[in-house]
């Protein structure tokens, strides 16, 4: 029996990859528009890969690169840009004086708070399109798939990543 495809459905949909990519692009467009309206017009799309994964307590460059799914070189370049713009700074790691932690500055923390508020607003808006329960179920399903696939390659993922460090 052939596997059903998205085109076999009574309600046709895009393949999962296209859904994820297009929603991520829309999400990022919304975040950048909001950032510009709050005085953060110097942020670029590529910076969101860092700001969405930085957390608030500090992170080493290698861990940030892994979390952001970028090379060390690309991560370092973006961190340098965000540091020059006043969003991030490097501090000695109290656990290892030879290492540096990347931490948000006060401007960076304010931007992260405003971005978090926008994320909540987007989740509420997008939830209104399908109903809150269906949207939350869809998000939980995506989390379950991520946890299962991440577990196969690197151990369980954590939901306490970027926003709660």
Major sheet details: 2 strands, antiparallel
Q: What low-confidence regions span 5 or more consecutive residues with pLDDT below 50? A: 155-165
Reading side by side through the largest sheet, how are the strands ordered? 1-2
Question: Could you say which structural class the secondary elements and strand pairing correspond to?
Answer: mainly alpha
Silhouette: globular
SS strand fraction = 5-15%
**What value does the average pLDDT take?**
89
Through-space gap between termini: 47 Å
Number of helices: 6
Radius of gyration: 18 Å
Residues in helix, %? 55-70%
User: What letter string, H or E per element, gives the SSE order?
Assistant: HHHHEEHH
List how many beta strands DSSP finds. 2
Walk me through this protein's architecture.
- It is a single chain.
- 58% of the residues lie in helices and 9% in strands.
- By secondary structure, the protein is mainly alpha-helical.
- The protein has a two-stranded antiparallel sheet.
- A hairpin with a 2-residue loop joins strand 1 (88-93) and strand 2.
Topology:
Blueprint: H1 16-37, H2 48-51, H3 61-68, H4 72-84, E1 88-93, E2 96-104, H5 106-130, H6 132-154
Helix pairs in contact: 1-5, 3-4, 5-6
Supply the key terms.
mainly alpha; disordered C terminus
In short:
The protein contains 6 helices and 2 strands.
């Amino acid at each position: 029996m052939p596997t059903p495809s998205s085109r076999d459905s009574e309600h046709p949909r895009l393949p999962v990859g296209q859904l994820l990519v297009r929603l991520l692009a829309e999400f990022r467009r919304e975040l950048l528009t909001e950032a510009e309206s709050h005085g953060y017009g110097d942020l670029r799309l590529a910076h969101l890969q860092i700001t969405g994964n930085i957390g608030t307590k500090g992170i080493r460059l290698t861990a940030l690169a892994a979390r952001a799914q970028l090379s060390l070189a690309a991560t370092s370049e973006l961190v340098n840009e965000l540091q020059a713009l006043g969003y991030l700074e490097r501090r000695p790691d109290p656990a290892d004086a030879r290492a540096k932690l990347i931490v948000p500055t006060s401007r960076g923390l304010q931007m992260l708070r405003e971005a978090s508020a926008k994320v909540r607003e987007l989740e509420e808006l997008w939830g209104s399109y399908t109903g809150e329960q269906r949207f939350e179920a869809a998000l939980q399903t995506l989390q379950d798939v991520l946890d299962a696939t991440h577990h196969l390659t690197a151990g369980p993922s954590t939901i306490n990543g970027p926003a709660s460090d």
